[in-house]
Amino acid sequence: MDEGGEPLRLREKAYASFTRHLLARDVRPGQFVSQRELVALTGLPLGAIRELVPRLEAEGLLSTIPQRGIQIAHIDLNLIRDAFQFRLFLEKEAIALFTVSASDAVVAKLRREHEDMLARGLAEELAPEIVEQAQAIDWNLHDTIIDAVGNEIIAKAYRVNSIKMRLINQERFRIDGRVVPVMREHLTILAAIESREPQKAVDAIAEHINNARALALKV
């Protein structure tokens, strides 16, 4: 067994490198690539890439097309619908638990981050690096809610879907120009969490996710 050994570390490095380049748009949805190109992209050995491909196929991040090669997952309506439905199922249950278990300090910190960014968005035209900070605040709220469940299986499944969500975000409805409405929707969610009423929080996050879904499908 190589658990904990160099082969395992190489596989994880290959996965982390590929997903990082994917989200950085160094490879694009729908693009065809070869294993050799993935070696050049990640800087890792061909053996690690060969072991990586089945995992990425299983996660729906790429597919092998006979006589054509490896195709990066492309953003279509089915992917959008499936990714949002999966996200909605997980986040509704997670936020119900988070609403009754999250500490006041954690919720207060999340509120401060959102209020500060909202104030900036209302006061000035945001530079690209500030927009990136806003995007990080957006994702962090959702990740925090999921991580608080304390279930590694759920967390891993959510992270894979989150990669797809971020690809959809890049292709369909980037936060650029939408910082103020996103921060306001998140503050509505945080107010529901502060009420310590799970159903109120579930309704708030469902409305937020459905709004994003409608934007993604409309573009």
UniProtKB/TrEMBL annotation:
This is GntR family transcriptional regulator. Pfam families: FCD (PF07729). InterPro entries: GntR_C, TF_FadR/GntR_C, Tscrpt_reg_HTH_GntR, WH-like_DNA-bd_sf, WH_DNA-bd_sf. Residues 8-75 form the HTH gntR-type domain. Keywords: DNA-binding, Transcription, Transcription regulation. One of its GO terms (molecular function) is DNA-binding transcription factor activity. The keyword Transmembrane does not apply. The keyword rRNA processing does not apply. It comes from Labrys okinawensis.
